[in-house]
């Protein structure tokens, strides 16, 4: 009688350990201020200390379990860019489980409604505030806020290993890394770390399958050479302006941008683009009431250097507007970091970039009750939550991402590169060019892809599991502008179905 009883207890213990309830009970989110309904799936959030020192690096995550099949659906890590922007950007404004309605009166707690286009309908998603110092992630040692590409990828890899130890029931699920904008740097560098860890036998063994990047910063030359042809193709600059710039710069706007004759022609390009919403050229660009945009020097210098904020949205509950004027510190050399078309900006200088009305996210995430509900430390510990922080010093030290993409695709990992085709911040022209530059054979010719019985964009497939896709009419943050189409291509790609 003793053995069967012991066996029953052993099986019961195993079922507890490897069921969805094996997740840390203290991290379970049971309610959220502003939401009156029932969660369609379980939510967890909290901190993982990645260096064994409570005063060291504490990375904050919010984990949403799939509404469909948590045990078999992929686990997807989502990263927003910046550098310095919280992944609650994606949670609140893009593909999270809720749509946020601005509170009335303005400044009061927003109301939350279920999002019909959330990516958690088909996947488990981890929203991570990274690197430390971003969002709710913090350290009591301010020297930890100085970081770069390599350190960030190493830290995030450590986070993942510890996260899967805390959530062992998900270790066998297919795992993907995803992100947009400056996460075009975060994602492939992290993917490389994960792939290396698997080769080296690090435990737990992550079931890594691939990654996806949207309107992604990738390579200074390809990104830097993309804007002028994009602006001309979109009828934002005249034939004369375009031809003069192309001739003066010899078509190499990045490498020749500091040369006097080329620079003088790029000034004409900049002047023609003043006032355009760089994140979606079809959307209005809102300005502060006292802004004289056409005569503002800061407006000219602000055009394509910010990758972290969003624009208008086609969602049922639009919550953001865009205006000019906020100063944004970027600590890396500008020419080595983002789009280098504007050579008058010195390395480490404070530059003026388009900013946003992020009142909905800020009001909600800085509410004391919300912080308590999601297990975030109080403001006295983390500081005020900002969508994009100026607290970190970030250095772009990994160079071009093209070697990373080539190495990972040659190892067989699946890669989706997608672009909103009306983004002028990281134009699709650059992404299309660098994917083509890999020299892979085209296995699926350029063709339209369909969503809701309409052409939603175009797709081209290469060997080595590389896919390039555009989303018609979308801006810099595709799921915010085209949520239905985004859920469509996301679902099909994760399920390895034709898009």
Shape: globular
**Count of alpha/pi helices:** 17
Number of strands: 17
Strands ordered across the widest β-sheet: 1-2-3-7-4-9-10-14-17-16-15
Proportion of residues in β-strands: 15-25%
What would CATH call the architecture of the domain at 24-216 and 399-417? 3-Layer(aba) Sandwich
Structure classification: alpha/beta
What distance lies between the first and last C-alpha atoms, to the nearest angstrom? 57 Å
Give the low-pLDDT segments: 1-20, 287-313, 321-355
CATH topology-level fold name of the domain at 24-216 and 399-417: Rossmann fold
Rg from alpha-carbon coordinates: 23 Å
- Global mean pLDDT: 85
CATH class of the domain at 24-216 and 399-417: Alpha Beta
Q: How much helix, percentage-wise, in residues?
A: 25-40%
Outline the biggest β-sheet.
11 strands, mixed
Short description:
The chain is α/β, with parallel strands linked by helices.
Please give a structural write-up:
By secondary structure, the protein is α/β, with parallel strands linked by helices. It has 17 helices and 17 strands. The termini are far apart. Mean pLDDT is 85; it is low at 1-20, 287-313 and 321-355. Keywords: Carboxypeptidase, Disulfide bond, Glycoprotein, Hydrolase, Protease, Signal. Probable carboxypeptidase. Belongs to the peptidase S10 family. It holds the Pfam family Peptidase_S10.
């Amino acid at each position: 009688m003793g053995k069967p009883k012991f066996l029953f207890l052993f099986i019961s213990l195993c079922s507890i350990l490897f069921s969805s309830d094996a997740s840390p009970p203290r991290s379970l989110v049971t309610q959220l201020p502003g939401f009156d309904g029932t969660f369609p799936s379980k939510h967890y959030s909290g901190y993982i200390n990645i260096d064994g020192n409570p005063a060291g690096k504490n990375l904050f995550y919010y984990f949403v379990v799939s509404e469909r099949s948590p045990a078999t659906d992929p686990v997807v890590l989502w990263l927003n860019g910046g550098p310095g922007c919280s992944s609650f950007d994606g949670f609140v404004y893009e593909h999270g489980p809720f749509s946020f309605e601005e509170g009335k009166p303005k400044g009061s707690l927003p109301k939350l409604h279920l999002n019909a286009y959330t990516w958690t309908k088909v996947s488990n998603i981890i929203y991570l505030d990274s690197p430390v110092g971003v969002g709710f992630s913090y350290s009591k040692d301010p020297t930890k806020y100085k970081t770069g590409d390599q350190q960030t990828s190493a830290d995030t890899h450590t986070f993942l290993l510890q996260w899967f130890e805390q959530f062992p029931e998900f270790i066998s699920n297919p795992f993907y890394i995803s992100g947009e904008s400056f996460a075009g740097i975060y994602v492939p560098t992290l993917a490389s770390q994960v792939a290396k860890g698997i080769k080296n036998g690090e435990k737990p063994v992550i079931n890594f399958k691939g990654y996806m990047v949207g309107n992604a910063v990738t390579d200074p030359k390809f990104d830097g050479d993309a804007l002028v042809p994009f602006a001309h193709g979109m009828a934002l600059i005249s034939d004369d302006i375009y031809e003069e710039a192309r001739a003066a710069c010899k078509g190499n706007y990045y490498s020749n941008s500091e040369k006097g004759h080329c620079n003088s022609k790029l000034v004409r390009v900049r002047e023609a683009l003043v006032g355009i919403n760089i994140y979606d050229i079809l959307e209005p660009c809102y300005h502060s009431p006292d802004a004289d945009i056409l005569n503002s020097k800061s407006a000219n210098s602000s055009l394509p250097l910010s990758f972290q904020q969003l624009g208008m949205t086609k969602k049922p509950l639009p919550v953001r507007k865009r205006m000019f004027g906020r100063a944004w510190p970027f600590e890396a050399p500008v020419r080595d970091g983002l789009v280098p078309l504007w050579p008058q900006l010195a390395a480490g200088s404070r530059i003026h970039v388009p900013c946003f009305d992020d009142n909905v996210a800020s009001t909600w995430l800085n509410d004391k009750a919300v912080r308590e509900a999601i297990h975030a430390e109080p403001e006295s510990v983390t500081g005020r939550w900002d969508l994009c922080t100026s607290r970190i010093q970030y250095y772009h030290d990994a160079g071009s991402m093209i070697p990373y993409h080539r190495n990972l695709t040659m190892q067989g990992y699946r890669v989706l590169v997608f672009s909103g085709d009306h983004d002028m911040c990281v134009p699709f022209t650059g992404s299309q060019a660098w994917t083509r530059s890999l020299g892979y054979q085209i296995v699926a010719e350029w063709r339209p892809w369909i969503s809701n019985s309409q052409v939603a964009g175009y797709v081209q497939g290469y060997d080595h599991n590389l896919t390039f896709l555009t989303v018609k009419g979308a801006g810099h943050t595709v799921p915010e502008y085209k949520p239905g189409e985004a859920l469509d291509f996301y679902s099909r790609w994760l399920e390895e179905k034709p898009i």
